[in-house]
Amino acid sequence: MGWLLIVLVAVPLAGAAVLALPAFRARGIAVTFGTTVSGVALALALAAVAAFAVPYGQGGSSSPSSPNSPGGPSGSDGGGLGGDMRLQTDLPWIPGLDLRFHLGVDGISLPLVVLTTLLTFLCFVHLTRHPPVGGRPRALVVTLLVLEVGMVGTFLALDLLLFFVFFEVVLVPMYFVIALWGGTRRRAAAVKFILYTLLGSAVLLIGLLVVWTQAGTLDMVVLAERHGGGMSRSAQILAFLAIGAGLAVKTPMWPLHTWLPDAHTEAPTVGSVLLAGVLLKMGSYGFARIAIPVLPEGAAAFAPWLGALAVIGVIYGSLACLAQWDLKRMIAYSSVGHMGFVLLGFATLTPVGMNAALFANVAHGLITGLLFFLAGAVKERYGTADLARLGGGMLRRLPHMGSLLTFACVASLGLPGLAGFWGEMLALLGAFQPAAVLPRPLFLAFMAVGGAGAVLTAAYFLRMLSRVTHGVHGVEPGGAVDVTSRELAAWVPLVVLIVLLGLWPKALLAVTTPAVQAVFTSGTVAP
Amino acid sequence: MNSALNSALNSALNSALNSALSSSSGSALGTGAAPVIQSIDYAAIAAPLILAIAAGLVLLLDAFLPRRPGMGRALGLVALGGVLAALVVVAVQAAASSRLPGGARRTFCVPSSLGGAGDAVSCSFVADRFALLFAGLVLAAGTVIVLLSMTELSGGRIPVGEWHFLLLATLTGAVLLPASRDLIMLVVSLELVSLPVFALIGLRRYDGRASEAALKLFLVSVVSTAITLFGVSLLYGSTGSVHLGRLARAYEAGHAAGTTSAVTIVAVVLVVAGFAFKIAAVPFHTWAGDVYQGSPVPVAALLSVVSKAAGFAGLILVLTTALPSLAGVWTPVVAVVAALTMTAGNVLAVRQRHAVRLLAWSSVAQSGYILTPLAAVASIRAETSGAGMNITGASEIGASVDAAGGDKIGGAVAASVAYLVFYAAMNLTAFAVVMVVSRRHGRNEIDDYRGLVHRSPAAGLALAFALVCLAGLPPGLAGLFAKIVVFREVVGAGLGWLAVVMAVNTVIGLYYYIAWTARLFTPEAVGESRTGSVPGTYETGEGAGSTVSTVSTVPAVVAFGVAVLVSVVFSVAPQVVLSAVG
Residues in domain NADH:quinone oxidoreductase/Mrp antiporter transmembrane (chain A) (predicted)? Predict the structure, then answer.
C-alpha cells in the first residue's frame, strides 16, 4: 500500500503539469479539471484512511523502520489506530544529501491530510461558479494544484529535508495566489507574506541541519524513537530555538504573526481558506512531528516561553479582533487567537495538551475555512467587507447566509457541542496539569489567561454578529441572492464535520491518541 | 586587433614561462648533474590544447577566408566545435581517470631529486577530478556562451573572428587554471582568463558604455594582478618554492614549529585579495555593476560564470592546497568577506531596475554564498583534531589536489564547488533569456519583462524558473539544494553567525528575484511601448513567440534550451552534481 501516498502527492502534481500544457490554453475546462483532480486526491486520502483503519499487520503495510526500534512501544503493542507509521515508502532520492523520499502517515498527520485534500476540493467546487476576479482561471488552478502538492507532502514527509522541501513548495504558489488574484493592496501583502515566511524557513533549515549534524540522520521516525538521544542538551536547545522560531512564523505565534492579517485579508477567498485552513497547520504540525518528539529537552526548556507567547497571542488576537472593522481582517486576527490555543496545547508537553492542539488544529481548519468562504461570499454580494458599511439585517435579507455565518461564528467562539469547543477546553485542561518538568503554577496562570481569552473570543464574535446579522439598517446587497447551490455544496461538508466533531470528538481523538501516546510515553525508554 | 594580439602574446608567454620554470627550478636548486628532460603528456593537456588550436584556427580563417554573409556563422560553428571537442575530451578523461594511477594525469613535473629533502614529484599540471570538474563546468558554460555570441554577433557590427578567438582564449585559460599546481602557472592562466575579456567588452566600439566598462575592468584587473603577484612573490620568497604541494609542506613544517611569520600572513592576505577582485568579493566588488551592464550579454554571462569559476578555482587551490596549515589565518578573513559580499551584493541588487545590472549584483551575492563553505574549513580541522567529529576529514582538505593524490575533494570545498555548478546552470539560464529579450528591448529594464510569460511562454517560464532557482525556492530545487549543501557545511562547522547572516541574505535575495518573477506574470500595462531597441539589433516584430522563430535568435534559443534542461535535471536529480564533486 506504500504506493498510495506517492500517488496522493503525484496526482495533483501530474494534474498541474498536464493543465500547464499549451493544449489546454483555449479551453474553459480548467476549473472542472482541477475539481476532478482534487476530487481524486480526496478519494485517495479517504482510501488512506480506510487502509489506516485496517489493524496493523493485516493491511499489508510495511514498516521498514521497525527493525530500528527494539522494544519501542510504537512497534506492536499499540495494536489500535495510529500509534505507528503506516503506508510507508522509503526511496533514496539524493544520497549526497542523505535525502530519502520517505513518506508515511500516522494518527498525527492523517487528519491533516484529509483536511487538506477536503479543503482543496471544496475550494475548487467553490471556483466552479465563482471564477477568480483576476481572470486566468487556468493559471489559478495550476497554482492551487501545486499548492496542494506542497501541503499534502509536508504532512506526509518523514525525512527532515524532504519535509523542508515540501514546506517550501507552498511559498511560491501562495505568493502568486495573493499577488495575482488578491485585493487592492495585494502586492505588498504578497511580498510581506513570502519574505516573512521565507525568513522563518531559513531559520528552520538551520535548525534542521543542527539536528542532522548532531544526530547523524534525517529520518524522522528514527529521530522520534530516539527521543533526543545522541544530542546534547545545548544542541537540543539551539535546534529547538531555530526550528521553533521557523515554525512559529508559519503558525503564527505572537509576535511573529504580523504577516498574517495582510495576507489573509488581501488573498482571494480560496487563498484565504487554504492559508488559514492548511498553511497555518503546517507550522503547528511541525511542532507535533519534529520539534517536540525529536528535541524533548529543548522543548522542555522552551515550553514556558512557548506557553507564555501562546496565551499572549490568545489575548492579543482577541483584542485585535475587537478593534477590526474589516470582516476578513477580523477572521484573520481570530486565527492568531485560535492558534494560540494550539500552541498552548503543545507547550504543556502532555498527551492531553498535544491531543488538544491537534484537535484544535483540525477544528480551526474547518471553522475558519468556512468563515473565510462566508466572508468571501459577503464581500461578493455587498461589495465590501467593512463592518460599518455592511450594516445589519443580514438575517432578514439573506436568511440562509446569515444563519450560516452565525453558525460559523458560534462554532469558532467555542460553543460546546461544536468542534471549536474541544480544542480549547482540552488545551486549558492540559495547562491545568502540565508535564512534570514544567512549573505548574505558571501553567495555571496560562490557563487562567487563556480562559479569559476564550471569553474575549466570544465577545468579538458576538459584537460582529450583532452588527452584521441583526438589526435593520444597512446597504442593500448588490445581487440580493441568497446562498447558491454551489456555495452550499462547498460549505455543507464543513458544517457537517463541525457538528460531527463537536458531538463525537472521539472520532478524531481515537486516531490521534495512540500517536500522541507514542510521542510521550516512550520518553521513559532509554534510547 | 591590438587587443587580440595582446592575448596571443599572452598565451605564448604562458608556454614560455612553463618551460622557463622547469629549467630555472632545475638550475636554481643546483643539483644540475643530469639535464631535466621534459616529456609532455599531450593527453593530459588535450583540452586546453584543442581550445588553443581552435582559437588560432578561427583567427586564421577570419583573416584568409573571403567575406561572405554566412561566414560569421561558420566561424561560430568552428568555435562551437572546438569547445564541444574539448568538452568531450574532458568527459573521456573524467571517465577514464579512475583507472589511472593516482587518479589523475599529470605533466610538467619536477622530479623529487630537484626538491628539498622529502619532496615528492611535483607537477605543474594535474588533470585530477577537481580540475576536470572545473574544466567541464567551464566548457559547458562556454558552449552556451558561444551560442549566445552567435546571436549577439548577428548584428554584424562586431568583428566575428576576433570575438571567437578571444572567447576561446579565455576558455583556454579557464580550463588551464584549475589544473595548475604552481603559483606561476596559476597567475598566468588567470591572466589568460582576464585579458581577452577586456577586449571582448571593448569590441563594441560604437558603444560608449562598453568602452567605459572595458577600461574599468582593465584597471581593476591589472591592480588585482599586481596584488596577487606581490603576494605570490612573498610566498615564493619565504619558502623558495612555487609548487603548491611544496608550499604546503613548507608551511606545515613551520606550523608544526609554531612559527608563522608576519610576511606569510601578509602574503596570504594579498593573495586572497587578488582573487577577491576576480570573484567580485567585497571590498573589491564595485566594478561589477558597470562592467556587466556595459558588456554584451554573452560577455556578462562569461564574467559571471566562467571568469568567476576560474577565480574560485584559483582561490580554492591556493587556500586548500598550498596553505591548509594556515587555515587559522585565512578562514576568518574568508568568513568576513563572504558575509560582507553576500550582504552587499543583495542590498545593491534590491534597487536595480536594469536586468543585467541586477544579475551583476546578484552574482556578487552568490559569490558570497560560494565563499561561505571555505570559511568552514578551519573549524572542521579544529573539531576533527579535537572532538573527532566525523563530518569531513581534515586530511581530505589538503590532500585533495596534490601529488599524494586524490580523487577526493574535501567536504567544505565540495560544497563550494557544488554551489558553483548549480549557480552556473541557473545563472546561464537567466542570462540566456535576458539575451533573447534584449534583442527586442534594447534598454533591457526589468519593466520590459512585464508579461513575458504571455508574450513568449517558453522564455518567460524559463526565466521564472531560473530566478526562483537563484532565490533557492521550490520548484527551483537546484538552488534550494545548493543552499542546503552550503548551510550544512556552515552549521556543521559551528559557524552559527555566518549561517544566520546567510539566512537573512536569502530573504533579501528573494525580494528582488520574486519581484522580477512576479513581473513576468503580470499583464502588460496599457500603452506600454514596445520600441526602444538599440539600432543595429533586429526588431523582431510584435506578437508572442515571433522572436523565437527569428533566425538570429535561434542559437540563443538553443542556448537557453540547453541551460534550462541542465537546470531542470539538477533540480530533479541534484545527485548528479553532488556525486561528481564529492
Answer: 157-433
Q: CB B380: neighbour CB atoms within 10 A?
A: 26
Q: Which domain holds residue B48?
A: 2-22+40-526+542-581
pLDDT of residue A82: 46
In a domain, B28, yes or no: no
A519 pLDDT tier (thresholds 50, 70, 90):
confident
Query: Measured between beta carbons, which residues in chain B are less than 8 angstroms from residue A168?
Result: 473-474, 480
- Tell me the three cell numbers of residue A437: 518538568
Q: Is the dihedral of CA B486, B492, B497, B500 positive or negative?
A: positive
Mean pLDDT computed over A44-49: 88
* Domain count for chain B: 1
Residues 6+ apart with CB under 8 A from B272: B231, B315, B319, B330, B333, B334, B337
A-chain residues within 8 Å CB-CB of B383? none
In chain A, whose CA is at the least distance from the CA of B392? A213
Of A93, A191, A209, the CB nearest to B491: A209
Cβ distance of A165 and B474 shorter than 8 Å = yes
Residue A189 near residue A326 (C-beta atoms within 8 A): no
A residues 197-226 lying closer than 8 A (beta carbon) to B: 198-199, 202-203, 205-206, 209-210, 212-213
Query: Which structural domain range is residue A366 located in?
Result: 3-63+88-524
Q: What is the pLDDT of residue B117?
A: 55
Half-sphere exposure of B138 (CA within 13 A, CB side): 34
Task: Please give the average per-residue pLDDT across A207-229, as a whole number.
Answer: 84
Q: How many CB atoms lie within 10 A of CB A234?
A: 12
Instruction: Identify whether B378 is part of a domain.
Output: yes
SS3 B126: strand
- Alpha helix (H) ranges present in B387-495? 394-399, 411-438, 452-455, 457-471, 477-492
A74: in domain: no
Q: Report the 10 Å Cβ neighbour count for A389.
A: 12
Whether B27 is covered by a domain: the verdict is: no
Put simply, the answer to whether B503 touches A175 (Cβ < 8 Å) is no
Q: What single-letter amino acid sits at A525?
A: V
The share of chain B scoring above pLDDT 90, in percent, equals: 21
Do A192 and B537 meet the contact criterion of CB atoms below 8 Å apart?
A: no
pLDDT mean across residues, chain A? 84
Instruction: Give domain status of residue A439, yes or no.
Output: yes
Which residues contact residue A69 at a Cβ distance below 8 angstroms, ignoring those fewer than 6 apart?
A: A75, A225
pLDDT at A465: 86
- Reported in sequence order, the residue ranges of B240-361 that DSSP labels E, i.e. its strands, are none
Nearest-neighbour CA in chain B from A472: distance (Å): 43
- Bin A414: left if φ > 0, else alpha if -120 < ψ < 50, else beta: left
Distance from CA of A322 to the nearest CA of B (A): 33
Looking at the domain assignment, is residue B360 inside a domain?
A: yes
User: Is the pLDDT at A118 greater than 90, yes or no?
Assistant: yes
Residue A491 lies in a domain: yes
Burial class (CB in 10 A: 0-12, 13-18, 19+), A62: middle
Nearest Cβ partner for B503 among A146, A176, A206: A206
Nearest CA in chain B to A239: B491
User: What is the percent of chain A where pLDDT is above 90?
Assistant: 22
What is the tens place of the pLDDT at every residue in B274-293?
888 888 888 888 888 889 98
Total structural domains within chain A: 1
Contacts of B577 in chain A (CB under 8 A): 96
Inter-chain contact A97–B484, Cβ cutoff 8 Å? yes
> Do residue A168 and residue B474 have CB atoms under 8 angstroms apart?
yes
- A58 falls within a domain: yes
